[in-house]
Amino acid sequence: MADHLGRAASALRAAGIDGWLFYNVYHRDDVADAILGVPADAMNTRPWAALVRADGTVSRIVHAIEAGVLAHLPGPVATYASREEFVARLRAACPLRTPVAVNYSATIPALSLVDHGLVTLLRELAIPVLPAETLIQRVLGVLSAAGRASHDRAAVQVRGVLDAAWQRLADRLRGGAAVSEGEVRDWISAAFERHRLITEEAPLVAAGKHSNDPHYQPAGAGAPIAAEQVVQFDLWAREPGADGVYADISWVAFTGPAVPAPVAETFAALCAARDGAVAFIGERLAAAQPVTGAEVDRHVRAILDRHRLLPWVCHRTGHAIDTRLHGIGVNLDGVEFPDPRPLLDGSCFSIEPGAYRPEFGLRTEINAYVQERSLVVSGGAPQREVLHL
After folding, report:
1. Quick one: which of 95, 103, 243, 247 has the most CB atoms within 10 Å?
2. Given a cut of 90, is residue 3 above it in pLDDT?
């Protein structure tokens, strides 16, 4: 938490903002809790507020019956027992007409967390508000050296689990044995347990037309995996503990000896888009030029458009990765919820262009992170050709 406070103050100075106002009730803002080190089981039935300033000082406002909720933070504390007292304490903490950042975003829903009632109150008090999306990124949305190492370890293990699952599936199919989507999903989940990896939810194994649903999850055993079908794998996991960072990859297979031309050609185009993203980011970093998540997505979409795949694209190019599968940092998104934030040192994200035709869907996904002025692709060599029997 002390490190987060220091990073918050540093982020404020970098952005030229005087203060960052955190506010929470019923733990609705998990970002505020994470930055200020408020435990998830702490009593929070009454609003608390904390103003972190660019010089590193903190002012706290807590309800009288939950006065200890921010006791671990430094700086003065003011208690209240009525709405009028809360407003007075807030007015005293925030200088008149001086902008403060609060946890909202006009374009990124995952970062729009602050209570609108608070924003309305601040405006009534003539205290302008600014979105905190870039501040959140700098505090929680970039990986430390230890975080990158955790991600790298997870990426190697997840890739190994994928390789083993495909080999087992291929052997079963060559032997004429029946196998279902759910069975392969369970192989992967069991392998994660053996490797002491954890995950938010079960991996995706989608056969045939199910592959055109990017978030498909088989119910129970799912559908049988038959001959001459596309099979889409999507698996993610991380090391246990609060600091474990996810790895998240997608591979494509075909359950026949020869990959049909439409599948092979579509996959080759997706690989070109994926590799184009890597090259585009790498060139910008090497030239010390900023590159935003929205710019990368638009670059990838231009490549997909040249291959006439854009009508079959239904999601962004990639998402941030950290201790959450869909992290708090920069998303490679220029269409869904355009992300104007630049990729910073420590930014970690997926690159996963996909095309979802009515008869089949394909997605290739790798992970990468920024390290100084270069882009590191984790987990070994990306998939270049569709796996087949």
Report:
1. 247
2. no
Dist CA 389 CA 386 (whole Å) = 10
Query: Which is it for strands 204-207 and 374-377: parallel, antiparallel or unpaired?
Result: unpaired
Sorted by sequence, the CB contacts under 8 Å of residue 266 that are 6+ apart come out as 309, 355, 357, 362
One-letter amino acid for residue 363 of the chain: R
Q: Phi/psi at 319 (nearest 5 deg)?
A: -125, 155
**Amino acid identity for residue 87 in this structure:** V
Residue in 48, 34, 47 with CA at minimum distance from that of residue 3 = 34
CB atoms within 10 A of CB 369: 25
- Return the ∠ at Cα 139 (arms to 324 and 125), rounded to 5°: 110
Structure tokens, 220: 């129970």
Burial environment of residue 327 by CB neighbours within 10 A (0 to 12, 13 to 18, 19 or more): buried
Question: Hey, which residues does 254 pair with through a beta bridge?
Answer: 230, 388
Tens-place pLDDT, residues 12-39: 999 999 999 999 999 999 999 999 999 9
Do the beta carbons of residue 214 and residue 126 sit within 8 Å?
no
pLDDT per residue as tens digits for the range 77-96: 999 999 999 999 999 999 87
Cα 349 versus chain centre, distance: 7
In whole angstroms, give the CA distance from residue 296 to residue 318.
Answer: 9
Q: Identity (one letter) of the amino acid at 5?
A: L
Digit-coded pLDDT (tens) for 251-280: 999 999 999 999 999 999 999 999 999 999
- Helices 133-140 & 2-15, crossing angle to 10 degrees? 140
> Mean pLDDT, to the nearest integer, of 44-70?
97
Across the strands, what pairs with 249?
235
Res. 2 pLDDT band, cuts 50 70 90: low
